[in-house]
Amino acid sequence: MKTPELPKLSLSQAFSTKRSATAQKSNAMSNTTNQTSKTERSRVSKFIKNISDFFKTLFKQPSSTNAPSMPNMTNIPISIVSVSTPAVDKALESKQAIISTLQTVFETPSLASNTEIKSFKSEFEAQDFSELTLKESQLFMDKVQQVVAKDSEDKQAIISTLQTVFETPAFASNTEIKSLKSAFEAKDFSELTLKETQLFMSTVKQVVVKQAKLTVETSKQSIQSLIIHFVKSTHSKFQESIAPIQKTVMKRIRTIQATRDLESKFFKDTTGSQVSTEKGKENYQKLLNLYTEKHLKTTFTTIMGTQYSHLNADTKDVQLGGRQSSQIDADIEDLLLNNPKLKAQYDKQIGGLFTGLSSILKKETETLIKTTLANDQTMANIKALQVSIIAIQETTEGLDQANSQCGGSDDTALNQTFHSAKELMTISTNFSHFCQNFIEGFHSKTHIDKTSIKSIVQAIADSDQKFQAIPASKKDAYITALTEHLNHRLEHKKVIQKTSQSMGSIDTSKLATFKLKSAKPSTQKTWHKLFSQKNKFLITKSKGEHMELFNKISAKLEAKIKIHTDLIGKKDIKKMIQESLSEMSVNSSHQEAFTQYVTDYVIDRLEHKNTLSTHDAGAILTPNKTVKIASKKPEFTQSPLQTEPTFKEALHSMTPQLNMQMKASIQTAYNSRGLKSKVEKMTQQLQSNKISKQASSLRTTFNLNNQRILNYIRTKSYSSKDAKKEEKPELSALAEKLSPFATLSDSITALLNGDSFDYSKLASLSKDADAILDALDSVKHLAQDNAERLNHLIETVPLAGTLLSAANIIKHIANAANKEDEVKTLREMVAHVQSEDLTTLFDKQSPRVETFAKLLTSKDDRDKSLAQAVYSSINLASAPLGICVGSLLNEVVDTFSEGHLNIEDYHQIAENIVTLNTQYSQLATKTQKEATHTFIDCLRQESLVGDEDAVNDAFVDYATAGVDPQKVAAEISHMSF
Amino acid sequence: MKTLNILQLKSVSQASAKERSTLKVTFSEKKLAFLKEKVRLFVDKHASITITNKNKAIKPEDGYFIFTINPNGLDLIESCSIKKYHFEFKFSENKLFLNSREADISFLDSFIRKTTTIAKNVENDTVSIIKNEVPL
């Protein structure tokens, strides 16, 4: 290969005689030379310039010395640049040569439009060179040479930048870039003027900006859809589960406070008058709250949403302990006019009531604090993801502005735009991957595969003496055999998903015995539209809506499923159903609803029968299963691991450590699953507690506590209230009665969302609604004897809440004179609350909270039935976004008179649950600026693989500190030199 | 008069197209040796030579750069507001690093641009040139 020519001349010159002279001088120099001589500056400047030039050659050379030979760009004979070479210098020693060169320059078309060249040309034409000395001619030539060199350098720089753009992988797949690249390769730049080159560059610049914007937009769409899916399908369920906890604790606090009727005494003590004023009432409530805060600490601050307000941001190990008692006492003293006598009295009368309460409330308050913190953390994380991508997108506007401001006259403009665009694309793509991984879990952290097993095996083997006894030539074979065995064992024991499986893949070994139609009564009951319902004497009492159609196609459909071997998704199943319908020449008006229903049934059936994989290869299926390394099967007993004596001994020796490490790795992988999995786990815990019939269930605990608290208050109180009886657990039967109507709430949700509605079905729906209301009526008597109201009771029954809402709406529409008008009114109300605008999802300014407040205050003006229907509609509409706020607010009206919770209390609960506490960032240990810098810097990497922990940590700091879009945008757009 | 040989330029572009996407900032052995030698001669008996505008910056938030040339390589730190670039070309590894990560050729242009600007600043006497007797 021809070695690329080095810029020897320049570099050598930079260190030639001048260097030695200066070096000698510098020997006597101290460290700093601010007053550097001009010669020295020139030498250093030249050296640095030459370094730049030296690095520039990398743009023009093959990547390695072994690369195939190719023409060297440094050898490209660019005469207009090479006028500075010694050869040309020599040639220019004659005046004639100068004139000849100048003539050629002035005749070069690509230089014709250069204004400076034009001016030189005029001067040249007017000049009589015979009258000029050689030196004067050379001087003229030098000036021309400088302009030509500048023109050429500018063009060359643009070409070089364009090449970099075209070869950057992020842009290479863009069709517009591809076509511009073809045009670039076909262009003869020597014939183009600088302006024409700049024009071409400007087109490339626009495409680059467009591509960056498109990439960011695509990332944004994917992140937003991921967030909406997470919020609707996972987080909202968690929020729904924590709503009763918040209500109960809030109610508990208000009940305790209400047992002290000292309001008029307080007015008299503090104002001298018993007449109440707004200010006086406010101060009295403040006093009660201060005593509650003093004794219940974090329980109280959590329920009031002030748990993060008094954290010391400088403390690294943040505790939610609340304020010191002395600080609270100081506030109490202020309210009591700094009168020690009064303080002592109220300490006894109000403070005494709380003494000892916190131990009774311990378990539920722990749950309250834990769940509220988890909810805030989840919201902060999701908000950080959502705000960040909006901020990233905003920076693309800056890209446009910078683009237009630069004017695009030189390659610096293209370079800046290109680098900014490239960095923005890297950031947004990395961010999109991070979002997916943060919510779902990082693959490498959550999966066990042969590579991870091998690294464990190798690490243990390296420190094992018996392994050292294995001949060196067989060591690799041992490691491979053991890795294969362990992987097979974990797969076989269903600890990890098989390598051959992926999400949605079919386990063909189970397909042969797969039966589409279930014979199980409970399954038939769940999928009642496809089966007939029988009584206990097995006599058919009703036929499912789609039963006939399903019977017709089931054999065909089953056969189609059985021959399917690839990945299977809803689309595939829908297609199979449609094909089966068409092959059986079935034509039904309900075909669409039928297809949808059967698709859901088939997916459920395949999953239930473990035929359809819901995990990808290597995912942890059962984290707690203990798997013995040794197997009794011949595949193991007859394998080299057992037949080869040295292998057997090594395995025996390594087994205890292998067992321990494998178990730990599986647990780690299981626990490293993403935010979704964590929230699902918490929800399951809360829901299983909520619906459990066991005495240990959370609600029962709450009710038992209620009893204990009321007893406690009774013994301490001057005017205790009647204790209410414990909840009876018979409600489970209700769930059975309601299960056939499971899909009713979906139909009504669709109606509220604006889907077309078949009014002719109203009569039959109304019948279903009556059945639901009857079923719920049958448990009404429980409410009369119970501390909890009916609405509370039905919360413990799956589906009952949403079905009650659906039934209320149906009855309201069925009874209305103008049904369509009523539907329109309800739809309008729902539209207010069903905002999917992510920017306001967790904000206190959310119009949803405001809408609820308006509805509440205007309830008296409304027809009671409409009001009921409106609250029910809000329940259905708000359920996917969070708690059933409609139900919560409906209850406000009913309970208001009882004095337990007031409207502010309910607003406070709604805020606690559906909005992010503004003080949450007090938990942060890094400033917003630092956290933003660290996280965005992580996203600048080419890939996040291998750095997952660091990125996760950086993100948690970033989310906790609260994301400021302006800081994100500043961090991203601050890229230029 | 010879003209810009665009055909040759094109052929280079096409031939290097496949290589370009994975090109690292690495010199051939010969070129690296040449550069090392030149740097050694430039630094001479000093441990390193630092060129910086840090002491001359009017406001700290305007940012600064520190370019250090030493027999082991080149080290350029540029800090501007909250952003920091740290380019290192290590002779021992024959690689260019940006913020401790190996940089590909698409980052080279930024490095060249920065050094060119520094060269201009040196000429304009807006920087300090510090000759370090002991290694930094």
Summed up:
The complex is a heterodimer of chains A (977) and B (136). With 977 residues, chain A is mainly alpha-helical.
What does this structure look like?
Chain A has 977 residues and is mainly α. Among the domains of chain A are: 65 residues, no CATH class; 85 residues, no CATH class; 105 residues, no CATH class; 101 residues, no CATH class; 173 residues, no CATH class. Chain A is built from 47 helices and three strands. In chain A, strands 2-3 form a two-stranded antiparallel sheet. In chain A, helix 11 runs antiparallel to helix 18 and helix 13 runs antiparallel to helix 15. The N terminus of chain A is likely disordered. Chain B has 136 residues and is an alpha+beta fold. Chain B has one domain. Chain B contains three helices and seven strands; from the N terminus they run H-H-E-E-E-E-E-E-H-E. In chain B, strands 6-5-4-3-2-1-7 form a seven-stranded antiparallel β-sheet, covered by helices on one side. Chain B is globular. At the A-B interface, helix 1, helix 2, strand 1, helix 3 and helix 4 of A face helix 1, helix 2, strand 3, helix 3 and strand 7 of B.
Global Rg of chain B: 17 Å
**Can you summarize the main beta sheet of chain A?**
2 strands, antiparallel
Count of structural domains of chain B:
1
Shape of chain B: globular
- The total count of helices of chain A amounts to 47
The share of residues in extended strands of chain A comes to under 5%
The interface involving the most residues is between:
A-B, 89 and 75 residues
Please give the largest β-sheet of chain B.
Answer: 7 strands, antiparallel
Separate helix tally of chain B: 3
Helical content of chain A (DSSP H or I, runs of 4+) = 55-70%
Strand content of chain B: 25-35%
The secondary-structure class of chain B comes to alpha+beta
Distance between the termini of chain B: 51 Å
Kindly report the average pLDDT value of chain A.
Answer: 73
Poorly predicted runs of chain A: 1-34, 62-92, 689-703, 716-728, 785-789, 835-841, 856-862, 879-883, 892-899
Strand sequence of the main sheet of chain B, in spatial order?
A: 6-5-4-3-2-1-7
The secondary-structure element order of chain B is HHEEEEEEHE
Strand order of the largest sheet of chain A: 2-3
Q: Between the first and last Cα atoms of chain A, what is the distance in angstroms?
A: 37 Å
